[in-house]
Design a protein that fits this description.
mainly alpha
C-alpha cells in the first residue's frame, strides 16, 4: 500500500506523467470538443425539424379514411330535407292533386 506522503516509484521506461487537469480553452471556437458537440446539436435539430408538407399529410389522412359510397346521395338528401323544412305547408286540394296525377 502506498501512502500519499511517500514518493512513488518511477518507471524509467515510461515518461513521467503529471497529474494536471485539462484546462478549457479561453476561445470556445478553438475548442474541438465544443465544435464537435455544436455540430451534433445542429445536425440533430435539423433532422428533427424536417417533416412532410401539410398538403401531403392531408392527402395521406384523407386517403386512409375513404368516404362512404353513399356520401353524395346522403348529402343531397340532407339538402332536400332542409329545403322542405324551409317551406310553409300549403292547403291540400284534392282536385289539384288528381290533375297532377293525370298529367303525368
Amino acid at each position: 500500500m502506498i501512502l500519499p506522503d511517500q514518493p512513488q516509484p518511477v518507471n524509467p521506461d515510461q515518461p513521467a506523467t503529471e497529474d494536471t487537469e485539462a484546462v478549457p480553452s479561453a476561445n470556445i471556437q478553438s475548442n474541438p470538443a465544443f465544435t464537435e458537440l455544436s455540430g451534433k446539436i445542429s445536425s440533430t435539430a435539423k433532422l428533427q425539424k424536417q417533416h412532410e408538407s401539410s398538403q401531403k399529410a392531408t392527402d395521406a389522412a384523407q386517403a386512409a379514411a375513404p368516404s362512404p359510397s353513399n356520401e353524395r346521395q346522403s348529402m343531397a338528401q340532407a339538402s332536400q330535407v332542409q329545403t322542405m323544412d324551409a317551406q310553409q305547408p300549403g292547403v291540400f286540394s284534392k282536385d289539384d292533386f288528381k290533375a297532377l296525377l293525370t298529367k303525368k
